[in-house]
Amino acid sequence: MVLVPYSLWFFGQETVALFRRPRGLLGLAAVNVVDQILWTIGCYHTTASQANLITKLQVAFVILFSFLFFREERAVIRSAYYLGGTALGILGVVAIVTAHSAASLLPRYDFATFLLIVVALGWAIYAVWGKHLVMRTHPVPMFTVVAVHSTVGFAVVACVAGDLDTVWKASIQSTLLAFVSGVFPIAIAHCTFHYGQKHLGSAFATSITLIGPLITYFLALLIWPDEKMAPVQWLGTAMLLWGSYLVVQAQRKRGTPLDRAPVAAPPE
Hints:
Blueprint (H helix, E strand, L loop, with lengths): L2 H8 L1 H9 L3 H21 L3 H8 L2 H12 L4 H5 L1 H18 L13 H24 L4 H23 L3 H5 L2 H29 L1 H7 L3 H12 L7 H24 L14
Helix pairs in contact: 1-2, 1-9, 2-9, 3-8, 3-9, 5-8, 5-12, 7-14, 8-11, 9-11, 11-12
């Protein structure tokens, strides 16, 4: 609803061309649909904290795939600053999502855990494949085409496995929440992420997203006055900030012109 008119207005020719020749974008949309469905099912069978913690495995998968497929990213990935910063960031995320009982976050090797590991792998495939495709186009029309085909895929799944009556029974509040969710954490976030991948690299962009849980907690502190962070969470905050700083420094020290380097990626 938002991306299509925006893309047609500002990137008309490119958007139409991508719709006519979607090629790899169809595969990217398929990965998106499967990953989102598995994520929803996984969250349903576990806690939000466990789900976020397990899916941070995506960072390791993205680093591995980026090292294999993108020669221009290997110098940054090999950096001690980058590896140390990413490790600190992951440890910081673990500390932040730990509320008061660390034992409650110990991974359970059940169906939900398996699904969320698959989700982490799926996101890594989505990120690295997206980096390959966005190098030849603008991220906004690219994700617009992905979003349209993803919507078609979700509609098919909804018709086969869902109850379409819930669409008409949804309250105004639920509909508004879905709209805001679609615009900000999906439409805008995916476009900006792919823009970051295009100019900074897939591994670097994914590592920076580790700061997400920190932003979530600070927003929660502003919205809900009874929200509090335990000492271990403040420790995790410090680790996450320091790790993010090291990752950024690794990129700056290497100064790799990622957006001008040749791309070696898996076939479309």
